[in-house]
From TrEMBL:
Secretion signal span: 1-22
Annotated protein name in UniProt: Branched chain amino acid ABC transporter substrate-binding protein
GO BP annotations, alphabetical order: amino acid transport
Domain Leucine-binding protein: 27-370
Family membership: Belongs to the leucine-binding protein family.
One Pfam family per UniProt: Peripla_BP_6
InterPro entries: Leu-bd, Leu_Ile_Val-bd, Peripla_BP_I
């Protein structure tokens, strides 16, 4: 009798345990970034931001419509390649993720966005800045950083009005990001009355820039703007130095990284580089970002590279929308995501406009001095 009672009790406990597990719903959140290739350091940084957010949320306990859920990160690598990006997007759709954070590059984000739109899956990009991304009419597309109209435009005006550039040249890598930010820079330079002396082209995989730099050297530019990433920008600066080109080197967030210091080496003079990063905090927000950086370092034994705080905020924003909608089903929480207003993140207050763009997005101007990135100003 005693043994029978014990067996019954064990069976009951097992049944209750199984029931609890069954009740704990798993919500899959996809993340895509280039974790292989030349900018893998930036892709890994993004992925770490997603992991940190999901680990924190699971530790706190997430309830949606009164039921406890477990968040699961489904991470894919797009290698910053558009074809691989669309393949990764389809894998996430097939995996039935509830939402996607990514991609890092505009060149992968834009083609992937159609796949998510067709599947009705919300997508928040933490770092893609090409304006086209949110201008395709897809209700599923959002971003938590300012776009190239703001970024390129601010840099163009700064080149003319603050740096007093007399002869300005442009190079872009023909990617959606590089070309987009370079075009907006050019528009702003012209609008400010600046003198454009040339526009040359390279690729995001090139290593020899001597022909285009030699062409530009003959035009005696005092500023060269590069639309592209640090993996190309650093070596380009080395070849500029070998040709005796001492022009200021400007660019967007792609060259605004600590990795740029290593890649350019002694070719980078103090104050020579002026770059802008979509996003940025100052004043009261700085403590929150400092706290995030400390948590990030403790968890991954690595420093924040660029956009991990924006990925982190994007995950929180997505989960907040699910909780407000009382559902993790894309069709049910998408309207709530679109209504996001005044969400307090580590990167600032997040509200979306009708296109899915962040309202009043910040932009930070930087230079590099004594081997460190040095903030010039935060503008909105």
């Amino acid at each position: 009798m005693h043994l029978s009672f014990k067996l019954t009790a064990v069976a009951t406990l097992a049944a209750l345990s199984s029931l609890a597990l069954a009740q704990e719903q798993v919500v899959k959140i996809g993340h895509v970034a280039p974790v292989s290739g030349a900018i893998a350091h930036l892709g890994k940084d993004n992925e770490y931001g997603a992991r940190l957010a999901i680990e924190e949320l699971n530790a706190k306990g997430v309830n949606i419509n009164g039921k406890k859920v477990k968040l699961e990160l489904v991470a894919e690598d797009d290698a910053a390649d558009p074809k691989q990006g669309t393949a990764a997007a389809q894998k996430l759709v097939d995996a039935k993720v509830s939402g996607v954070i990514g991609h890092l590059n505009s060149g992968t984000t834009i083609p992937a966005s159609k796949i998510y739109s067709d599947a009705g899956i919300p997508q928040i990009s933490p770092s893609s800045t090409n304006p086209k991304y949110t201008r395709q009419g897809y209700k599923t597309a959002f971003r938590v950083v300012a776009d190239d109209v703001h970024l390129g435009g601010t840099l163009g005006r700064y080149a003319v009005n603050e740096l007093k550039g007399k002869s300005i040249a442009v190079i872009d890598d023909r990617t959606a990001y590089g070309q987009g930010v370079a075009e907006e820079f050019e528009k702003a330079v012209k609008a400010a009355g600046g003198n454009l002396v040339g526009h040359e082209f390279t690729t995001d995989k090139a290593t020899d820039f001597m022909p285009i730099l030699t062409t530009l050297k003959g035009k005696k530019p005092d500023i060269i703007f590069f639309g592209g990433m640090d993996a190309v920008g650093g070596p380009m600066m080395k070849q500029m130095k070998s040709l005796g080109i001492k022009a200021k080197f400007m660019g967007g967030d792609g060259i605004c990284t600590n990795e740029m210091i290593k890649l350019a080496g002694d070719a980078m003079a103090d104050g020579q580089v002026v770059c802008a990063e979509a996003g940025g905090v100052d004043g009261a927000l700085k403590k929150g970002m400092d706290d995030f950086s400390a948590k990030f370092k403790k968890r991954f034994n690595d420093d924040v590279k660029l956009y991990s705080p924006y990925v982190y905020d994007a995950v929180y924003v997505m989960v907040d929308a699910m909780q407000r909608a009382k559902s993790s089903e894309p069709a049910k929480y998408l309207p709530e995501l679109a209504k996001t207003t005044g969400f307090k993140g580590v990167t600032g207050t997040i509200s979306f406009d009708a296109k899915g763009d962040i309202k009043n997005g910040a932009l930070t101007l930087y230079t590099f001095k004594a081997g460190k990135r040095d903030q010039i100003a935060v503008v909105r």
